[in-house]
Design goal:
It is a single chain. About 65% of the residues lie in helices and about 0% in strands. By secondary structure, it is mainly alpha-helical. The protein has two domains: about 150 residues, no CATH class; about 60 residues, no CATH class. It is globular, with a radius of gyration of 18 Å.
Length: about 230
């Protein structure tokens, strides 16, 4: 894969394979899984919702590997509950795939199992659609998940140097507010604040100002401002 393909590819598996070639932090993989799981929150069992909470803590360095492993084990044990004694249907497959995704998202071997978590999320969304909508949903999900990978991991073909002088009080406040609220409509305002501080990096400014860009917790620009890995 070259840079042009990275920027336009809608095959999330190819993008994730590219990311695996460089040492991305655990936190980035965990946040990708959480972002893919977000639309499926209503289909998660209690154990899976608890696992999501543990993954969020793990991403912030606020829980141990042992706690993450226990959460993974607890949600894995629920798989059989979902379809046991029930007629197999598309809705049961949605629940099954969503909870499987939560389990693999919580797996301590995050780099190995992130693929399965993201794929299970895509399957859940596919089953949630009607048969007539299925092909459209598959394409849209691939595009969304690919956009999430680019938002979280940035561009592996282009290193970005962040000048600490750009990290003004205004930029920090905007980045913190968006990170904590998970609401990123102020990204263009962050671009203005960074530019006012002297930022002239087109990759940073364009990512903030791109009206078609997807932004979630873990966005590479917000992480640079907040000094998160």
């Amino acid at each position: 894969m070259n840079e042009a393909e990275w920027l336009t590819c809608d095959d999330v598996r190819r993008l994730m394979e590219q990311v695996q070639q460089w040492e991305a932090p655990a936190r980035k993989w965990q946040l990708l899984a959480l972002a893919c799981l977000h639309p499926l929150a209503s289909h998660l069992l209690k154990e899976s919702r608890d696992a999501v909470s543990v993954i969020e803590l793990a991403a912030e360095g606020e829980c141990s590997a042992a706690e993450l492993a226990r959460a993974c084990k607890a949600v894995t044990a629920t798989w059989g509950q979902i379809e046991n004694g029930a007629e197999i249907s598309r809705s049961s497959h949605v629940r099954s795939c969503a909870n499987i995704a939560a389990s693999f998202a919580a797996h301590p071997e995050y780099r190995r199992y992130a693929f399965i978590a993201v794929s299970a999320c895509a399957d859940a969304l596919r089953y949630a659609a009607t048969l007539e909508e299925e092909e459209t949903v598959i394409s849209e999900t691939n595009r969304r998940h690919s956009a999430l990978v680019r938002d979280i991991f940035g561009n592996p073909f282009r290193a970005v140097s962040f000048n600490p002088a750009w990290r003004t009080d205004t930029a920090l406040q905007l980045a913190r507010q968006m990170y904590e609220s998970r609401e990123f409509s102020a990204m263009p305002i962050l671009a203005d604040a960074l530019q006012d501080a002297g930022c002239d990096n087109d990759d940073i400014l364009n990512h903030c100002r791109d009206t078609k860009a997807t932004h979630v917790r873990g966005c590479w620009v917000v992480d640079l401002v907040l000094e998160k890995e």
